[in-house]
């Protein structure tokens, strides 16, 4: 019996890749479906099983989004900046969704786990492509590796807040918070090392729980709201429209600047929509499923988040009291719940938020491990030959999972420098993600505007205007996210916004590395196909 030989003619797929426009045919000794043909044409072997379906890849993305724990974690960065009004969320979501739409279009054209750096390598001018790809890689990687630690630190803090709420004499130490966060990180690293089919099932279960718990807590906020009785009828059950929709600037900046600063809460809460891009090599019909999941995560998440913001706006009693935190809970969201609910209901709502946070943190670690693996496949990191290995038993990049775990532990050491320092990883996640998500969009609407080949999921004639809106919004927000919340004589060392150092410091080091050495060997994404399988035309 003759062995099966499949041929993939790269240029026949009408794509842009490292192998396109070279009259290349790829031969492999097995049958090839459309997804594998696409990844081969992109220059890579099919190394993962495609066991994520359309829903399960959306499940990972929505779980990374983790609206309930994200809203809880970002109370500091939105309600305690500009007040309870849902208006900032609504405005910010409009622009965040434009960024997501542009990213989804790019994901359809380049459905590979490398994500935006691969797109940048193909869209940028040849002279600058290696450096721009290099910077995009490092920016996206910073976004990914700070996600799981920040989520799990927030989850651990919620647990301790619940402990203090039930026992006012208990005051957790920073070491205890670090230890609990580490324990959660270890569990997530173990789960993220499992075979793909188990990961898909786990994340689908996590998304179901996240959606269900979000609805339950939303209903609890409205139905269990007992603030009128808790305050002896001195206040109504719900705030008036004038109170709920009013802005309350709690910073030392003008109100317009304060509103922009409050967008950090929305940006961070909505930052998980890129995850399907990095799972493109593990899902079927990737050129459609991945961008569709990006769009759905952003749009559905934005709408649900807005509704949740409205519920909070109509039930908050005293935002100043939440900021003062007289109970010493350390978590504004829990302090808010204590203003409107009885003790047992607060415990239940916070517990559901903690469980959702657990699933969210696990999805973040999963997505980050795929990014580290993909970039190591292009030999970007020291030790890439270890991080790019796929374990033969699980067929997952276990080494990449655990190197991310150790780097995450280093990031978590920032908590010993205080709340402002550890809070920088939230801003870093927002800026780093924005830079990475928007770089290919910027190139798509400028240098590559006449050469970009959209995939089956695209924006059509709206691609360019949406792209310009995305780029303009990101250009505005990058400096805004570096602003401290106080200024002048009040700007002491412990109030400095460390985002500039934590984000731009590593990028500066990456640039120095590029100038000194990396430019000699880093050329961007590299094909890992066996050369004897690549046939060049005459």
From TrEMBL:
One GO molecular-function entry: organic cation transmembrane transporter activity
- The UniProt transmembrane annotation reads 52-75, 87-110, 177-195, 207-224, 253-273, 294-317, 346-375, 396-416, 422-443, 464-486, 498-516
Main location class: membrane
* Keyword annotations of the record: Membrane, Transmembrane, Transmembrane helix, Transport
- GO CC list: membrane
InterPro entries, per database record: AA/rel_permease1
Membrane topology, as annotated? Multi-pass membrane protein
* Cellular location(s): Membrane
Note the superkingdom of the native organism.
Eukaryota
Report the protein name in the record: GABA/polyamine transporter
User: What gene makes this protein?
Assistant: GPT1
């Amino acid at each position: 019996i003759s062995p099966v030989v499949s041929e993939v003619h790269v240029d026949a797929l009408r794509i842009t890749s490292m192998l396109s426009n070279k009259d290349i045919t790829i031969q492999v000794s097995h049958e090839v479906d459309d997804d594998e043909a696409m990844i081969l044409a992109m220059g890579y072997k099919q190394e993962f099983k495609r066991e994520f379906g359309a829903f399960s890849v959306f499940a990972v993305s929505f779980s990374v989004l983790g609206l309930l724990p994200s809203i809880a974690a970002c109370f500091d960065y939105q309600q305690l900046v500009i007040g309870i009004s849902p208006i900032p969320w609504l405005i910010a979501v409009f622009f965040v969704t434009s960024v997501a739409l542009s990213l989804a279009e790019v994901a359809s054209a380049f459905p590979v786990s490398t994500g935006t750096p691969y797109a940048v390598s193909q869209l940028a001018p040849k002279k600058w492509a290696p450096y721009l790809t290099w910077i995009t890689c490092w920016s996206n990687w910073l976004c990914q590796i700070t996600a799981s630690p920040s989520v799990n630190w927030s989850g651990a803090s919620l647990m301790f807040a619940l402990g203090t709420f039930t026992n006012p004499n208990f005051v957790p130490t920073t070491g205890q918070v670090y230890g609990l966060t580490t324990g959660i990180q270890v569990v997530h690293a173990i789960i993220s090392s499992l075979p793909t089919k188990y990961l898909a099932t786990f994340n689908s279960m996590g998304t179901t729980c996240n959606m269900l718990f979000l609805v339950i807590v939303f209903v609890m906020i409205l139905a269990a709201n007992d603030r009128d009785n808790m305050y002896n009828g001195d206040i109504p059950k719900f705030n008036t429209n004038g109170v709920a929709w009013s802005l309350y600037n709690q910073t030392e900046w003008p109100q317009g600047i304060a509103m922009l600063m409050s967008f950090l809460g929305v940006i961070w809460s909505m930052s998980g929509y890129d995850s399907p891009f990095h799972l493109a090599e593990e899902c079927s019909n990737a050129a459609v499923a991945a961008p569709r999941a990006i769009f759905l995560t952003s749009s559905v998440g934005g709408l649900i988040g807005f509704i949740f913001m409205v519920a909070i706006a109509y039930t908050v009693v005293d935002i100043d009291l939440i900021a003062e935190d007289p109970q010493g809970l350390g978590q504004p969201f829990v302090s808010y719940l204590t203003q409107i609910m009885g003790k047992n209901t607060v415990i239940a709502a916070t517990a559901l938020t903690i469980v959702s946070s657990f699933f969210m943190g696990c999805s973040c670690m999963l997505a980050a491990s795929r990014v580290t693996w993909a970039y190591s496949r292009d030999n970007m990191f020291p030790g890439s030959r270890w991080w790019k290995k796929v374990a033969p038993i699980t067929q997952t990049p276990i080494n990449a999972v655990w190197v991310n775990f150790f780097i995450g532990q280093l990031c978590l050491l920032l908590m010993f420098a205080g709340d402002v320092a550890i809070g920088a990883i939230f801003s870093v996640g927002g800026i780093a993600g924005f830079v990475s998500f928007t770089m290919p969009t910027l190139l798509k609407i400028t240098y590559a505007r006449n050469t970009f080949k959209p995939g089956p999921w695209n924006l059509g004639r709206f691609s360019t205007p949406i792209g310009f809106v995305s780029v303009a919004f990101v250009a505005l927000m990058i400096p805004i996210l570096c602003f401290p919340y106080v200024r002048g004589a009040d700007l002491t060392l412990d109030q400095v916004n460390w985002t500039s150092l934590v984000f731009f410091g590593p990028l500066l080091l990456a640039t120095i590395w590029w100038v000194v050495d990396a430019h000699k060997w880093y050329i961007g994404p590299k094909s890992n196909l066996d050369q004897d399988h690549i046939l060049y035309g005459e």
